[in-house]
Predict the structure.
Amino acid sequence: MFKKTLMITGVLGLAVALGQSGGESPLSPGDSRVMRGFAITPVPLNLTGKNRALVGLGSYLVNAAGGCNDCHTNPPYAEGGNPHLGQPKQVNTAGYLAGGVAFGPFISRNLTPDQNGLPAGLTLDQFVHVMRTGEDIDKDPPQVPSPDKDLLQVMPWPVYQDLTDQDLKAIYEYLRAIPSR
Ligand code: HEC
């Protein structure tokens, strides 16, 4: 009887843990990456209706690891704030992640929330799909077709595709919280 109860509790516990975190370790609001993420965000965040811990982790991944600003902000740094010129780092907040950087014929996209609050106009499912497959679902020109889809160029999706589900979700949640441009 005692043994049976223990077993049932164990199975239930596992199911709850998997259900909550999708099989990944649960994210604590006190996680050092979450706290660092809030410390380094260059723009004010709208946390209404957002998962706070995910926003913080997303900021960490975007601003301290992903380098999204380098390619998706034009220019990436404010006047007098370009670290490559030995100036103290100051991100160009006015154009933060609003795209418009040209790489030959390829132009980086606006990642900020659209009028419906969707980053780059993408739902979470679409965003994860784009980051994992590089598929250009907007089919913006110039298009580079592979056998079955148009593929984003320059964009390092072959790197980001190996992030965990939780990390991609965190990046999306952060992009939902930044100002629209
Ligand atoms: C090396 C430059 C570079 C970096 C770094 C980069 N991107 Fe991109 N990204 C691009 C370019 C260029 C495009 C458009 C490519 C094209 O038109 O083929 C793009 C496209 C995208 C798209 C497609 C948007 C749409 O509307 O379909 C998303 C989403 C995206 N990037 C997210 C990110 C995120 C998030 C990061 C950081 C984790 C990031 N990018 C980092 C260059 C970059």
Observations:
- The pocket of heme C is lined by residues 62, 66-68, 70-72, 103, 106, 108-109, 111, 120, 127, 130, 136-138, 140, 152-156, 160, 171 (CB under 6 Å).
- Confidence is low (pLDDT under 50) at residues 11-22.
- The radius of gyration is 19 Å.
